[in-house]
Structures are given as structure tokens and as C-alpha cells.
Design goal:
By secondary structure, the chain is of the alpha+beta class. The protein has nine helices and 19 strands. A hairpin with a 2-residue loop joins strand 13 and strand 14. It binds oxidized coenzyme A.
């Protein structure tokens, strides 16, 4: 007796939303069990979805270009040989087999399959199914196909006691951020709850986003918060701007921050460094990047040799770079070679935040809006002081918490009395 089976996308490893590049069958076609029905292609692999049973294709539920994930309906199959296959006749015909191998054919030590790694193995659905049936741990199988893809023959040979794969190098696993067996990203039809608009991310946002994501995941961040007394510095800034009013240059707090950062980095060389394997590359130049908010996203122009420049020169350069950034006209070399970054939100607001390190740098200073606060140095007398919130994020692999606290204290002391930059 024939029965209609819903053929769904089986276990395709750690892939989701994989586009269909080819549909290999049409309604009325007679297929055998394991015959490929559709081809999926991600940026990393091409995969076939095999038929779970023999039968006649009744109705195809997908089209080329559709993006599929595990469990999604592909087609309806009128199957006569349901009984002869291991396939369930329920809607979950193609759901993955249980994680624990059950097949008596297994004579390789596979009782403990690493499920996360199994999902990441470079193998198509048919091979995965076979591996589960034979109780083969795909992590242990060396793929003989293109780019190391695991083929059915590899699984069969392994099940008969064949080759054991060399484990992937740890660096690759860590580098790619794989091994995290996370839930799939939630898919919500937001339009069910109200009107929505879909807007593609800008090119800069996409590039910056990928960098921020890598940095956030790969660098153990810690952020040290402090406050600087900038009462005198602000008075000096206002006075300086009056003095140079005719020059057309406006000195904002950012120029002082860049100057003070270069001086602080000179005293704390490990903050002006990059990790290279087990080595720390200590740079003997002080190129300070500053985050600039532009209509198309965040960019980081770099002020070179900030230690050798005066405040007005730095202010002039930051002004020019900020303008170029907003116009989208910064050249690549104006954004390269930075050794430390300052992210100033002072013109906008906020108290503290946790900036993400701009790899391969090892620290970044976030600055928020200054505020008047009543400060008492001795618990008896108090005064109103203009204070600037500082948030220093650092790579804890390179920098200890005590060093970060010292860096912030020193930096705050320089802002409290900029004459100390000369020392
Ligand atoms: N506290 C109080 N006021 C501040 C301040 C601070 N810390 N820093 C700047 N201001 C004031 C300025 O004095 C200026 O005031 P006036 O208009 O009265 O003169 C006003 O805020 C605007 O300053 P600005 O932001 O235009 O100038 P800037 O030199 O301070 O900053 C730039 C330039 C390019 C850094 C800034 O425009 C910018 O893009 N900031 C956003 C950076 C960002 O997005 N960071 C987040 C990245 S994620 O880590």
C-alpha cells in the first residue's frame, strides 16, 4: 500500500538558510531510496538532499533560490516501499536519527559522538544518515572528496576499520569560532506584529560588523572605568579657541585626549602593542585612531605620530578627517596603522560604555560626556569639578587589570594637568 511522505531537509550539519541551486526531480518522477532530490549550496559546501524512500514524486514544495534549513518541507513523495525502508511514514520522515548510534554494524569506538563536531563535519545529508546508521562518528573520518568532503565510501571504509582522521588543528577551530553549538538565530515574522520596512545594511556597516563580531568573540575584553577632572583643561580649551578663533580651527576635547593618549602609551608600552602568536609586538610609534560616526557607519581615521604634534595641529587633522569621513572620502591609508583607538561620545551623551577593541590593537578608550560633580577630596571640603568619564577596554591576554587601572589613573592625571605631558 502506498503512502504519501513529506520529505524534509535532513541533518545538514551546522548550516541554515542554504539556497537551493538545483531541483533534480519533477512531479511524476520515480525515484529510488537515497537518490538525490535537490542540491543545496552554501558558501562552504554543496549538499544533496536524498530521497528517504523509493516512490513517485507527487508535488514539489520548493523552487530554486529558496533557502532551506533542517526540517523544512521539500516535496511530497508517494511511496510504495515505506515498509522496506527505515523511514517513518509520519511527517518527520527525514528527521535525523537519534544521536546515539544504534546500528549493530558499528564495530568502531563511537559510543561518544561529539554532536557539535558531527554537525560541522563536511558531509552531505546522505553521508550523515549513513554515518548514523553505521554508528560512525564523522569527526573521525578522513574525507577523500573535493576539499576533504566526506563521501559514503569513506564512511563505509571507516566502519570496516579504515582510516582515522587527524583532528583539526585547534587554531583553526578557535579561529573560525566554531565549536559553539548554539541555537539557530530566531526567525520571526515581525510584520505579524505591526508594519515593518526591510533596509539592507550599508557596505561599511557590514564590514565593520564582521570585524566587531570577530573582535568581540576572540578577545577577552575587560573594561576599566574612571573619571578625570578636566575643569582646568576645559577652561584652557575655551581660552585657546578664543585665541585661535581666526585660524578656522576649533579645538575640541578630542585633540587633548589624543595627545594625552600618546603620552600615556609611551609610559605603558604594552597598550601600544599587538599580539603575534606568543609574541607581543611593541610599537615605537603612536598613531591614534578615533571613531567617527558617519551617515553610512563607523570609520576610524588615524592621526599619525600624535606624540610629535601640537594640540592645534591634531585638532585641525581630526576636523579634516571627520569631514572626509562624513563625506565618505577617507583614503585607506588614512585609516591604517593605528596603534590605539579613542571612541568619543562626549558630544552626544552617556556616562560610561564598553567599547570593543579594534584588533589587532589591544586597547581602546571610550569617552563620554563631561559633567559637573561635587567632589570632596578629604570628606570635609568639597568643590564642583568638571569630570570626564573614561572607559578603557583592554585585551586581558596582554594587559592585567592593575595595569589598566594604572593606565586610566595616569591618563586622568594628564588631563587634570596637561603640563605633565611634557614630563
Ligand atoms: N563632554 C562634553 N562635551 C563634549 C565632549 C565631552 N567629552 N566632547 C565633545 N563635546 C562637545 C564639543 O565641545 C562640541 O561642543 P560645541 O558644539 O558646543 O563646541 C560638541 O560636543 C560636538 O563635538 P563633536 O563631536 O563634533 O567633536 P569632537 O571633536 O568631540 O568629536 C568625532 C569628533 C568625529 C569623534 C565625533 O563627531 C564623533 O563622530 N563621535 C562619535 C564616535 C562614535 O560613534 N563612537 C562610538 C563607536 S563604537 O565604540
Amino acid at each position: 500500500m502506498s503512502q504519501v511522505i513529506e520529505v524534509k531537509v535532513p541533518d545538514i550539519g551546522n548550516f541554515a538558510d542554504v539556497p537551493i541551486i538545483e531541483i533534480l526531480v519533477k512531479p511524476g518522477d520515480v525515484v529510488k531510496a537515497e537518490e538525490p532530490l535537490i542540491m543545496l549550496e552554501s558558501d562552504k559546501a554543496t549538499m544533496e538532499v536524498p530521497s528517504p524512500a523509493g516512490g513517485t514524486v507527487k508535488e514539489i514544495k520548493v523552487k530554486v533560490g529558496d533557502k532551506l534549513s533542517e526540517g523544512m518541507l521539500v516535496l511530497l513523495l508517494d511511496s510504495a516501499d515505506v515498509a522496506q525502508t527505515a523511514v517513518s511514514t509520519s511527517a518527520s520522515a527525514a528527521t535525523p536519527a537519534p544521536a546515539v548510534p544504534t546500528s549493530p554494524a558499528a564495530h568502531v569506538p563511537v559510543a561518544q559522538t561529539d554532536e557539535a563536531a558531527f554537525k560541522l563535519a563536511y558531509a552531505g545529508p546522505g553521508v550523515r544518515k549513513l554515518a548514523r546508521e553505521l554508528g560512525v562518528d564523522l569527526n573521525q573520518v578522513q574525507g577523500s572528496g573535493a576539499k576533504g568532503r566526506i563521501l559514503k565510501e569513506d564512511v563505509e571504509s571507516f566502519a570496516k576499520g579504515g582510516a582515522v582522521a587527524t583532528p583539526a588543528p585547534a587554531a583553526t577551530t578557535a579561529g573560525a569560532g566554531v565549536g559553539l553549538d548554539l541555537l539557530a538565530w530566531p526567525k520571526v515574522d515581525f510584520s505579524k506584529f505591526g508594519p515593518v520596512e526591510s533596509k539592507p545594511l550599508s557596505r561599511i556597516k557590514k564590514i565593520a560588523g564582521a570585524n566587531l563580531h570577530r573582535n568581540w568573540v576572540m578577545i577577552p575584553h575587560v573594561t576599566n572605568h574612571d573619571e578625570a577632572d578636566i575643569t582646568d583643561l576645559e577652561a584652557f580649551r575655551v581660552q585657546l579657541n578664543q585665541e585661535i578663533a581666526k585660524s578656522g580651527v576649533k579645538v575640541s576635547m578630542l585633540a587633548f585626549l589624543i595627545k594625552a593618549a600618546a603620552a600615556t602609551l609611551r609610559k605603558f608600552p604594552e597598550f601600544n602593542a599587538s599580539l603575534d602568536g606568543d609574541n607581543l609586538i611593541l610599537k615605537q610609534y603612536y598613531h591614534i585612531g578615533f571613531a567617527a560616526d558617519t551617515p553610512i557607519g563607523l570609520v576610524v581615521p588615524v592621526i599619525r605620530n600624535a606624540d610629535q604634534k601640537g594640540i592645534v595641529e591634531i585638532a585641525q587633522e581630526t576636523g579634516e578627517f571627520a569631514k572626509l569621513a562624513r563625506e565618505g572620502k577617507l583614503k585607506p591609508d588614512q585609516m591604517q596603522g593605528g596603534t590605539f583607538t579613542i571612541s568619543s561620545l562626549g558630544g552626544i551623551g552617556g556616562t560610561f560604555f564598553t567599547p570593543i577593541i579594534n584588533a589587532p590593537e589591544v586597547a581602546i578608550l571610550g569617552v563620554c560626556k563631561s559633567a559637573w560633580k561635587q567632589i570632596s577630596p578629604d570628606g570635609q571640603h568639597s568643590a564642583w569639578r568638571l569630570t570626564l568619564p573614561l572607559s578603557l577596554s583592554y585585551d586581558h591576554r596582554v594587559i592585567d587589570g592593575a595595569s589598566a587601572a594604572r593606565f586610566n589613573v595616569h591618563f586622568a592625571n594628564l588631563l587634570a594637568d596637561m603640563r605633565r605631558v611634557l614630563i
